[in-house]
Amino acid sequence: MSINKELLELLACPLCKGDLKWEEGLSVLICEKCGVFYQVVDDIPILLPDSATPLSELGKVPPPNEQL
Question: Which terminus of the chain is less hemmed in, N or C, by CB atoms within 10 Å?
């Protein structure tokens, strides 16, 4: 999976409106300002405020093919 660079420039954290960083190996978008990440499933970022997960749980994310 991958996120298009132009799309990544347009995406923002739904909580703080800050920049998101793409972590390809885990298929997540990270907001370092808020300390949360959002999963990307089938190339679709799940950017709902309720779907924000603390960075402390980043190691507990299932592999991309097992998400949701």
Answer: C
Mean pLDDT, residues 6-33: 94
Contact 40, 29 (CB under 8 A): yes
Hey, what CATH class is 5-60 in? mainly beta
Q: Are strands 44-45 and 21-23 parallel, antiparallel or unpaired?
A: unpaired
Whole-model pTM? 0.82
Q: What three-state secondary structure class fits 43?
A: coil
Residue 37: its H or E element: strand 36-41
